[in-house]
Amino acid sequence: MKLKMLLGSFFLLFPVFLTGCWSSHEVNTLAITVCIGIDKIENGYRVTEQVINPKAIASKRSINESPIILYTSEGQSIGEIIQSLTTQSSRRIYHSHLRMVIFGEEVARDGIKDILDYFMREREYRTDFYFAVAKGASAKEVLSVLTPLEAIPGISMYSSLETSQNFWAPTKSIKIIELINLITAEGKNLVLPSIEISAGTAMPNSTEVLNKDTGIKKPIFTGLGVFRKDKLVGWLNEDESKGYNYITGNVKKTVGTIYYGNNDRITIDVMKVKSDMEVYRVNDKPAIAVNIDMLGTIKTAVGTLDVSKEENQSLLNKLSEDRVTYFCNKAITTVRTEFKTDIFGFGEAIHKKYPELWGTIKDNWNDDFVDLPVNITVKSKVTQLGQITTPLFGEEKE
Amino acid sequence: MKIAKISNHQLFSLTACNSIGVALIAISALMVRIAKQDAWISAIITPIFGMLVMLMYWFLGSKYPDETFVDIIRNILGKWLGLLVGINYVFFYTIIGCHLPWYIDQFITIAALPETPTYIIGLLFMITIVIAELYGVETIARASEIFIILISILFFLAMLLVIPNARIDNLQPIFEHGLTPILKSSIFLTCFTTCHLVTLMGIYPYNIADIFAAKKSILKGYLFGGFIIFVTIIMSILVLGQNITSKLQYPTYVLAKEINIGKIFTRLEFLIALVWIVAIFIIGILFFHAAVISLAQLLRLKDPRKIVIPLALIMLVLSEVILPDIPYYANWINLVWIPYSITIALIIPLLLLLVFSLKNRIFNKKISKCIRT
Predict the structure, then answer these.
(1) Continuous H helices in A335-377
(2) A314 CB within 8 Å of a chain B CB
(3) Residue B116 forms part of a structural domain
(4) Among the four A275, A283, B192, B254, which has the fewest Cβ within 10 Å?
């Protein structure tokens, strides 16, 4: 009897566990998106999603299919547009693996505030993807470029931004938390990396082009876009972006070339950069001193200058200091004359040191910032010469 | 029937879980909204004040070491007034206890499973609590002893891993808006970490083995909980900045999303979710146990287990009704929770203490008069 009851209750309870999981989505019902591009159209946005084509990525045989699929839709609200993409895609689009968000230039000029709300509120998005602004092309065009080394362009762009942030001074990677903090911060404004399609003969929009051609176009990070609040106001070129990153202490490692005389070109591998911003108060007015310390190694030395001599050491240091000072001053001058927006965070530094002084000047800071005295001091030390001491061909006389 | 007695270390872990509980995942948003980047200072101030409250509970219990809270109230206030205050406490335990399944199901639906009905999540939570309650106080205490180790390891691991993202200048300038917002926000923190501890009176002093050593373990547990809350608040400000923290629903959860070390330690936000759910589970049991025991005492039931399932069903249904949506909840905190919790957890025990000492004094005078004459 007891056994019967036990068996009966077992069979009654059994179906409860057979129903499977609630809210479950199998991987083969999801379309994983790696990159979202947002462009401005007449009234609203055009959203392009770069979705991974699992057949082309995962199969062992080489399939002649594009590794990505682009879905595009238009509308007024980002959330609505993205949901409506399901009418084109056979699978539900899944955003947790998003790597990049690319704004079209017009969207950025119009303001990105309204878009960011969606990315922060929606549950599926994490906080680890990067942002960039497309320059000279629409976001859709940037997304449609296939890349050779990394099959998925979104991941290629992500890795390239991350690597260049570590090894090349002009780029800067920004994630959503920092992005929002920069937009809302007082006395500091946003910059975003700009992405272009490089010059070339062939547009890689199919895998055949990617296999055959040599002069293919690639997505490339070129410099920084300058924002006032959430609106794009202009671009910094490579030198100015370098200057920006030196001032804000965002350079990890980079390479720079200094020129001496007519023929001598010495490239220095910058191994370590430390920069700090100090605020002074002079006659109830703020003043900024930026101190940059750097440590370098010689990468290449072309010309006759004997870098191994001690007296030339100080010359090298001096030249590289001048070079970095030039970048920094150029960045500051351009930003002051053309954009009038404090992207360097001078205002924030004043706010942190002299809160009450900041209270009196914060209202029209972006205008006052133009007259702020900024002093840049660079200290450079070129300590190592690489594997060669004296120049290989230095003593040849023609 | 043999009375279940719990050790002092178990009391420590119960107190710690209880004061971490509700606050862990969401409190920093509330605090930072008021005190901006200085919220961490009020997280230091609050425990100093809270320790006085803990001492008050301990003192109250130490005078009647073998009685339950309802009996203490009845002893101090007499039969009818005691009944009234006792009913008040049962009401508090039941109504606020209903919020705990609500917290869990809101969190799970927002963060992980948007399509699952909230009733199912609440049901699972309540079933676990009912099972724990039927096993008795000793089991609950032992479970909390294990859980506090789990909580500490996972929590500090998550916070350690997020340190590389911290930026010290998010804390500056210190004291920008003066002391008032800091004190104001510490009221919030008191309501969320200290006032819940009145549920400890469900097991204290009746189930405590050594009442005088209990003082130390209650204070230790409370300070440990306070330290964990302090770490969450300061890390939220350091990593996310005050602006974003104040606008988030679950700042600590987003904080854990930021963990990224060498691309290996990523996507660890469920560490924090796990810590929080475990802590909420302990606090849920304590609320439920306090409600069951107090009601049984008021009704003078011989076996409190008989009302466990009915009360659980009531609380389950109530949990879905009592808080309709999140804006209502935000409003409810300001309008109801602060005055209500302060009344229940601070003012009434204080009055009990006052009446107790007055009674004692008068009584003692009478005795000494009797002796003199």
Answers:
(1) 346-353, 355-361, 365-368
(2) no
(3) yes
(4) A283
* Nearest-10 Cα torsion for A260, A265, A268, A273: 40
Residue B244 maps to a domain: yes
- Tokens 């055949």 appear where? A208
Chain segment A301-342, per-residue pLDDT in tens = 887 778 788 888 888 889 889 999 999 999 999 999 998 888
Q: CB distance from A374 to chain B under 8 Å?
A: no
In chain B, at which residue ranges do the beta strands (DSSP E only) sit? 260-261, 265-266
Residues B51, B39 contacting (CB under 8 angstroms): no
Global pTM reads 0.88
Pairing mode, strands A100-103 and A231-236:
unpaired
Q: Tell me whether A128 touches chain B (CB under 8 Å).
A: yes
Distance from CA of B175 to the nearest CA of A (A): 10
Outline where DSSP puts E strands in A76-158: 92-94, 100-103, 130-134
CATH of the domain at B125: 1.20.1740.10
Q: Cβ contact (<8 Å) for B267 and A180?
A: no
Task: Calculate mean pLDDT across residues A347-357.
Answer: 88
**Cβ distance of B244 and A126 shorter than 8 Å:** no
Per the domain annotation, does B2 fall within a domain? no
Q: How would you classify the pairing of strands A68-75 and A44-52? A: antiparallel
Q: Which domain holds residue B135?
A: 8-372
Q: How many domains does chain B contain in total?
A: 1
Q: Which of B116, B169, B258 sits opposite A22 (nearest CB)?
A: B116
φ/ψ of A91, rounded to 5, equals -120, 160
CB contact under 8 A, A180 and B172: no
pLDDT at position A89 over 90: no
> Touching check for A166 and chain B: CB below 8 Å?
no
Does residue B352 fall inside a structural domain?
yes
CA distance A119 to chain B (A): 13
Q: Find how far residue A337's CA is from the centre of its chain.
A: 24
Give A 9-28 residues with CB within 8 A of chain B. 22-23
**Can you give the pLDDT at residue B6?**
87
Q: How far apart are CA A294 and CA A325, in angstroms?
A: 12
The SS3 call for residue B248 is: coil
Read off the tokens for B200.
């400890």
Tokens describing residue B343: 């009344």
The answer to whether B114 contacts A351, with C-beta atoms less than 8 Å apart, is no
Residue located via tokens 């301990």:
B58
Asked whether residue B275 carries a pLDDT value surpassing 60, the answer given is yes
Residue ranges and CATH numbers for the domains of chain A are 29-236 (no CATH), 244-398 (3.30.300.210)
The ipTM estimated for the assembled molecules is: 0.82
Question: Which residues have a Cβ under 8 Å from the Cβ of B69 and sit 6 or more positions away?
Answer: B89, B201, B202, B204, B206, B290, B294
Closest of B35, B149, B127 to residue B313, by C-alpha: B127
Alpha carbons B367 and B365: distance in angstroms, whole number: 5
Closest CA to B249 of B17, B43, B33: B33
